[in-house]
Amino acid sequence: MPLEASGVLFSLGIPLSDINLSIQIVDVPSCLPNEPSIKIGDIPSDAVLPERWCRTPVRHVVSSIHGRDVERVMRAFHIVQWRRESLYCGVCGNKNSDSQTETARICPHCRRVEYPRIAPAVIVLITNDKDEILLAHNAKFNAGVYSLIAGFNEAGESLEQTIEREIWEEVGLKVNAVCYKISQSWPFPRSLMTGWTARYAAGVIQPDGIEIEDARWFKRDKLPELPGNGSVARWLINRWRLEH
Ligand SMILES: [Zn+2]
């Protein structure tokens, strides 16, 4: 199955000799021992694709595949983006080389080593004492779609502090009983998404009006349109729906 997003194209199993394009094919080791490597080719978004290949947004693909296939696609997408952004040394500006021993770029001039960048992020399912969860409509979402409060970790913050800050900034609430549940690679663009639960403690919902356009408490039998399967947000919501 060929996959594409933002000009990036991957293959899950189809021989890359199928691609009649002059592109560099890179072997990326799997994170797991005894698992085949992932072959990545970065094809320009305006390239004419060979027959049998099509372009499919990665987000759509990961909502329809499962298990290790999801993780391998996430890794491939993350590495391709990082390779695009690490062509040159960030200190001296010379062109980087590929490390022969690990997934890294090395500057031949100053020996600076650059690894794939990973930005930790949090997403949190907030419950109240009325058996409801807080869902918010982000300005970037499609109309009618609601999800959990999420945000990026700032330099110097613990993830627990990120959760408290994001919830306060985006909807003006205080929470307690913050509890870690799950994590997932989420390379849109380069996150490690960590999923959490928390209990409402104080405050009145006040969407920030910039990132969050609307936020409300929802009961489990009256949920709005949700993010697709395969996301940590959906996993946390589904898990809550099945409780009791
Ligand atoms: Zn350098």
Structure, described:
The protein has a four-stranded antiparallel beta sheet with strand order 1-2-4-3. The chain has a four-stranded mixed beta sheet with strand order 10-8-12-11, with helices on both faces. The chain has a three-stranded antiparallel beta sheet with strand order 5-6-7, with no helix packed on it. The chain has helices spanning 58-62, 67-85, 159-171, 232-241, and strands spanning 2-5, 8-11, 25-28, 38-41, 97-98, 105-106, 113-114, 119-127, 132-138, 149-152, 174-186, 191-202, 212-219. It has two domains: 2-85, no CATH class; 119-241, Nucleoside Triphosphate Pyrophosphohydrolase (Alpha-Beta Complex). The chain has four helices and 13 strands. The chain is α+β, with helices and mostly antiparallel strands and 244 residues long. The structure holds zinc ion.
Beta percentage is: 25-35%
Poorly predicted parts: 1-9
Mean pLDDT: 88
Name of the CATH homologous superfamily of the largest domain: Nucleoside Triphosphate Pyrophosphohydrolase
Amino- and carboxy-terminal Cα gap: 39 Å
Gyration radius from CA atoms, angstroms:
21 Å
Summarize the amount of helix as a percent range: 10-25%
List the keywords.
2 domains, 4-stranded mixed sheet, binds zinc ion, 4 helices, alpha+beta, globular, Nucleoside Triphosphate Pyrophosphohydrolase, 244 residues
